[in-house]
Amino acid sequence: MQLNMPFLTETLPGIDGRIRVEPEDFFVEEIGVGRPSGRGDHALALIEKRGLSTPGMVRLIASRFGVSHRAIGIAGLKDAAAVTRQWVSVQGVDPARVEVLEHPQIRVIEVGPHGRKLRLGDHTGNRFRIRVRGSGEDGLLRARAITDVVQQRGMPNLFGPQRFGTHGRAHEIGRCYLFTDMAGALDRYLGMPSALETDDRLHRARRLYDEGDLVGAQEAFPASRYVERTLLGRLIEGGTKEEVFLSMSLTELQFQLSAYQSWLFNRILAERIPRIDEAIVGDIIRYHQSRFDLRVQNIDAVRGPIERFAASPTGPIFGYRMAMAKGEPGRIELEMMAREGLKLEQFRPKRNTKWRGARRSFRVRPERLRVEGVDGDVVLSFLLPKGVFATALLRELMRRDVR
Q: Which of 2, 53, 178, 185 is the most exposed place for a label (fewest CB within 10 A)?
């Protein structure tokens, strides 16, 4: 999907270029997970993977050691078109067996006994090293001009295109789910070919589904699309669209709904980007270090923390317990809800999922940001907190949405 959002550095020329030409061009490493505790029935391993998605890695490990995917814990999801290092826990498997795991796309760097399963969000952030190829002779100068602004004002803390699934419709599916249109949700999950998907097999499978050929669609989806093939099997066996959609795992359902929350946040952030580093009366600002939220009543009282980047304005991750902004920021949030026909009560728990809602900073500043020229290319090194998309920075630099 296209984000259709303005750029913070609109007046500066971008660097264009290409990313992910080689997997090594996009390196990501989890930070803040900790080390193996030395005791327990989980093997905690730092794994480097190349050209492999995190779900694909989990399936591979589960198959290799004969365990359920539920026995495997991860702290975060990492890109497939990259070289990434992330921690993985495997319950009931001797660390010595994990240590000698061999696969052309996987390398075990460290492993040891640990006392518990990793959970999503157990890391504090990620370290990146990204190469942008073909940015031209003055690419480095243009990149530094943009990153100077980002360091001063922060970069928009948007959710990148990858947050909305490979076909770019996860937010539409999540909206259908929230508004109890399960048939519409399933139709978007299985059908409606997307230009974002470059695999012709996916286009064919989705077209066959749209035409009502369930068996043909199931056969056309590649084996790696296990969820789609499973759902089609349940439809073929006579399940209703509502029953089949709700048979998906809670994790999968949560992803779709969270994508809709993310899309709503992006829409509100799009209106705020020109004033991303200003407080407005009625804002809820967040103090970064303490995670303390404060409703703004006096601009002068918070101007210092905002300017020092000790605090930032926030936007809504809509949920039934979320605090709404007031004043002009609150009006924007209420107008968004009205356009969507949305009420916070709709987010109350369903099927054990939790959609309390939260506030998210409108901006973030990359830490330890370095911009270098290497053989005519631009190479960026930086740290970001968990939940922040590196592609938000690349988007400012390259002047287009990037995955």
A: 2
Class of domain 33-123: alpha beta
Q: What is the dihedral of CA 61, 89, 250, 30, to 10 degrees?
A: -100
DSSP 295: E
Q: At what angle do helices 250-272 and 327-340 cross, to 10 degrees?
A: 130
In the chain, residues under CATH classification 3.30.2350.20 are: 276-364
Separation between Cα atoms, residue 125 and residue 46, nearest integer Å: 15
pLDDT tens digits, residue range 239-280? Answer: 999 999 999 988 789 889 999 999 999 999 999 999 999 999
Rg (CA), the chain: 22
Alpha carbon distance 13, 23 (integer Å): 27
Strand stretches in 160-310, DSSP E: 284-287, 292-295
Q: Which CATH code of 1.10.1510, 1.10.10, 1.10.3130, 3.40.1620 fits the domain covering 164-251?
A: 1.10.1510
> Are the CB atoms for 220 and 205 separated by under 8 Å?
yes
The half-sphere exposure of 27 on its side-chain side, counting CA atoms within 13 A, is 10
Q: 176: which 2 tokens?
A: 């259908």
Q: Catalytic positions, please?
A: 79
pTM over 0.70: yes
**Distance separating alpha carbons of residues 181 and 350, to the nearest angstrom:** 14
CATH number attached to the domain at 276-364: 3.30.2350.20
136 confidence band (pLDDT: 50, 70, 90): confident
